[in-house]
Amino acid sequence: THVVTENCINCKHTDCVEVCPVDAFHEGPNFLVINPDECIDCTLCVEECPVGAIYPELDIPAGQEGFLAINAELALEWPVITTKVPAMEEAERWDGVPDKLPLLKR
Ligand code: F3S
Q: What range defines the domain where residue 74 resides?
């Protein structure tokens, strides 16, 4: 599967959802997740993300391994998103800010 990681938090550009052939993205208040049971590892979303937040499961950045479980958990709770919506208002300011996990809204 592919996994949405920390840099999506408070950015949520949603370009990724438009290219997903299996509608695997689910939307929360300030983050998106990929349903690991739907993802077919097509990799199309990786290049679409303007902030580089999406990684293959086996290539998750060190320290962010917990996002695999977070994606699996929240995909069961959040609705599917298939159409791009405006990014978060302060998306540019949050790009690259470290340790955003405590800011994740559920
Ligand atoms: Fe997040 Fe990037 Fe998609 S910021 S919503 S993973 S395009």
A: 2-85
Stretch 64-79: mean pLDDT, rounded? 98
Q: How far is the CA of 54 from the centre of ligand 1 (A)?
A: 7
Residues 6 or more apart in contact with residue 102 via CB below 8 angstroms: none
pLDDT of residue 67: 98
Atom of ligand 1 nearest to the CA of 52: 2
Q: Token pair 């791009």 is at which residue?
A: 84
> Is residue 98 a part of any domain in this protein?
no
- Note the pLDDT of residue 18: 98
Q: Is 67 domain-assigned?
A: yes
Report the distance separating Cα 17 and Cα 39, nearest Å. 12
Interval between CA 84 and ligand 1 midpoint (Å): 10
Domain count across the chain: 1
Which domain CATH number covers 76?
3.30.70.20
pLDDT tens for each residue of 22-53 = 999 999 999 999 999 999 999 999 999 999 99
